[in-house]
């Protein structure tokens, strides 16, 4: 059952980044600008950030089979609509529908895993889950590069559609109901404020990465998004005392979960930031094709996925610190190495640094996912996984916006000083990788504070904190 959910989650999350390489084709085929074409990825992240906060409540209201059927059915509808889209607007609608289904799958997978897998086996199983959650976005550009070599952008959806349909059919035969639905009301004010807050934050951050005057508007929308999130937090704290919160913030009362959340967010920021910069470097600066770029970064993505189960077994045996601390250090070293990119850097060095980054993230993500979710009591699993998913989208948007903004600002400043365009852009990339490396130093500090295993005292402390307000 968990294997099927992992496979389904892999298929749907792969679509988050699968169109990155298809932007030029979309511009030519649908006659849109680059800024407009980028919306096929931005709208996906935006929808995920807006919907995931509702999944904690949704997963408590329906059975496991119903949640799976609804999520995959909506995803299939969005994929089919995207494949036949006659215009860019219809394609955008299809991507939004796709994202709505994807938003349910990851919290469903995490919640199911925590309920059905015994604690002593969670590391091994979470290693397989890392394949879906972390490797799928990393492999998206590589997979799309291969498909685009033989067909149009529509092939990206035509190939995914039958695979997703088969996974859905097998899943409906094998997935069992593992928990009883709970009848609970939903606070629509919280839903609205969460959508405005998290959606606005992701949208504002995406505008910061644009070069055509969107920075001022982006900063304004980010501030408005943060204000809406503050209102959302105040509302949830009030509902925790008197009703049912949309997203239960008592999850943050568990220290290990809070530390895990911080480390995963910075890790995703670094991963998505490098995913944006590397294709720009390899294609714009070094002249590689989308296929060649995809093949160059594919070994790192595959290594990350194949190591997931091994890392999980090592976690079950030795605990988190022997894995997470070296993984965090490796992440910083890889991003530091990318600050030395040049017009003549051998491709084997690029491949090696990317592989080091992916392997380091594999060593980090699996133990941290397991530790963080395992520190929560069962009634908070769905809320914990929905908060994890929401912050991943925000971190991905922030990472993308940050590296592009730093790169373009540095390049623009050098061009104004009379430096040629190519060296200026290369200098901007080096600085952007440097900023990502400095930010990733946070992961080393957090990794040093994580317990080796889920501390009984931590769970007890959180459960005690939950009890006075649970009634």
UniProtKB/TrEMBL annotation:
NCBIfam families linked: efflux_EmrB (TIGR00711)
The UniProt record lists the keyword Transport: yes
Subcellular location, principal: membrane
Database matches in PANTHER family: MAJOR FACILITATOR SUPERFAMILY MULTIDRUG TRANSPORTER MFSC (PTHR42718)
Organism of this sequence: Streptomyces nigrescens
Source domain of life: Bacteria
Membrane-spanning segments: 38-59, 66-84, 96-117, 129-147, 153-173, 185-208, 214-235, 256-282, 294-311, 323-343, 355-376, 388-411, 431-450
Domain Major facilitator superfamily (MFS) profile positions: 1-455
Pfam families: MFS_1
Protein family: Belongs to the major facilitator superfamily. EmrB family.
UniProt subcellular location: Cell membrane
Topology class, membrane: Multi-pass membrane protein
InterPro entries: EmrB-like, MFS, MFS_dom, MFS_trans_sf
Protein name (database record): Multidrug efflux MFS transporter
Keywords per UniProt: Antibiotic resistance, Cell membrane, Membrane, Transmembrane, Transmembrane helix, Transport
């Amino acid at each position: 059952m968990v294997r099927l959910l992992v496979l389904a989650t892999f298929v749907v999350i792969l679509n988050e980044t699968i169109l990155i390489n298809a932007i030029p084709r979309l511009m030519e085929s649908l006659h849109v600008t680059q800024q407009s074409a980028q919306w096929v990825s931005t709208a996906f992240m935006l929808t995920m950030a807006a919907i995931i906060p509702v999944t904690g409540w949704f997963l408590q209201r329906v059975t496991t089979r119903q949640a799976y059927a609804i999520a995959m059915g909506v995803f299939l509808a969005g994929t089919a609509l995207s494949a036949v889209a006659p215009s860019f607007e219809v394609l955008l609608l299809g991507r939004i529908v796709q994202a709505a289904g994807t938003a349910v799958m990851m919290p469903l997978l995490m919640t199911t895993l925590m309920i059905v897998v015994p604690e002593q086996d969670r590391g091994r199983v979470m290693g397989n889950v890392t394949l879906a959650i972390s490797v799928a976005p990393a492999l998206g550009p590589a997979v799309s590069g291969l498909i685009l070599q033989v067909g149009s952008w529509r092939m990206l959806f035509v190939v995914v559609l039958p695979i997703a349909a088969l996974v859905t059919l097998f899943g409906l035969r094998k997935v069992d109901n593992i928990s009883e639905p709970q009848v609970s009301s939903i606070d629509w004010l919280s839903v609205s404020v969460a959508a405005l807050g998290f959606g606005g934050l992701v949208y504002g951050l995406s505008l910061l990465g644009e070069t055509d005057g969107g920075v001022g508007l982006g900063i304004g929308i980010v501030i408005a998004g943060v204000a809406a999130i503050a209102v959302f937090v105040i509302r949830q704290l009030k509902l925790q005392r008197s009703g049912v919160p949309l997203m239960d913030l008592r999850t943050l009362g568990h220290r290990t979960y809070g530390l895990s959340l911080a480390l995963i967010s910075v890790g995703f920021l670094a991963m998505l930031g490098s995913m944006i910069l590397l294709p720009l470097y390899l294609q714009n600066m070094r002249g590689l094709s989308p296929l060649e770029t995809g093949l160059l970064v594919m070994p790192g993505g595959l290594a990350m996925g194949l190591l997931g189960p091994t890392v999980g077994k090592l976690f079950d045996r030795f605990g988190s610190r022997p894995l997470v601390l070296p993984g965090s250090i490796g992440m910083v070293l890889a991003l530091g190495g990318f600050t030395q990119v040049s017009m003549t850097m051998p491709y084997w060095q690029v491949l090696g640094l990317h592989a080091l980054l992916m392997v380091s993230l594999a060593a980090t993500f699996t133990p941290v996912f397991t530790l963080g979710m395992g520190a929560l009591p069962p009634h908070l699993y769905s809320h914990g996984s929905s908060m994890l998913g929401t912050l991943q989208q925000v971190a991905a948007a922030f990472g993308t916006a940050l590296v592009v903004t730093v790169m373009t600002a540095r390049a623009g400043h050098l061009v104004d000083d009379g430096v040629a365009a190519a060296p200026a852009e290369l200098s901007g990339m080096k600085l952007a990788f440097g900023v990502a490396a400095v930010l990733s130093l946070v992961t080393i500090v957090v990794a040093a504070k994580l317990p080796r295993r889920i501390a009984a005292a931590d769970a007890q402390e959180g459960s005690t904190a939950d009890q006075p307000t649970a009634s």
